[in-house]
Specification:
By secondary structure, the chain is an alpha/beta fold. It is built from four helices and eleven strands. The strands form three sheets. A seven-stranded mixed β-sheet has the order 3-2-1-6-9-10-11, with helices on both faces. The protein has a two-stranded antiparallel ribbon with strand order 4-5. A two-stranded antiparallel ribbon has the order 7-8. The two termini are 19 Å apart. This is 5-formyltetrahydrofolate cyclo-ligase. Belongs to the 5-formyltetrahydrofolate cyclo-ligase family. InterPro entries: FTHF_cligase (IPR002698), FTHF_cligase-like_sf (IPR024185), NagB/RpiA_transferase-like (IPR037171).
Length: 187
Amino acid sequence: MKKATLRATYKQKRNALTVNDVDDLSLQIANALLQLDIWDKSFYHIFLSIEEQKEINTDFILNILSGKDKNIVISKSDFNTYEMTHFLLTDATVIKKNHYNIPEPVDGIAIPSEKIDVVFVPLLAFDKQGHRVGYGKGFYDKFLSQCNPETLKIGLSFFEAETQIEDTFESDVTLDYCVTPEQVYMF
């Protein structure tokens, strides 16, 4: 399937989930992440969930990261350049929703992309080759291309892999893992 079709299909699938479904599936994903050998790193980038889009509830993963005393990095999106700036999440960080209901830090301690060891990547769909479909603005492809080649890219999905996304681009950055409630995919 093509990205546009997948985007529409998976938005509908997510929309059909209840709030309880989102929380239950999100907890299963967080528990599956604990089985991965990724917890010896320092800087972990995570997205803050857009509740209105029924994104994975990342609060469970935030709790794991806090419990393991990791440096948590969150982003602010610039919709003029389609780039993100990254900030360390601290007790003093003020979070505010932007025009698109994305919770973002108002400001804080900037962290360069090259310093990030692990990125938890939001997505709508993914395939068995590690390609992903997001909302289509390219924020994460730009961001991930600025990270070190060793940075682990871990997709989080409520749904299982598609066989193949037909219209991928050379600039699309593939995932290293994708974690669903049912299984962990390695690419």
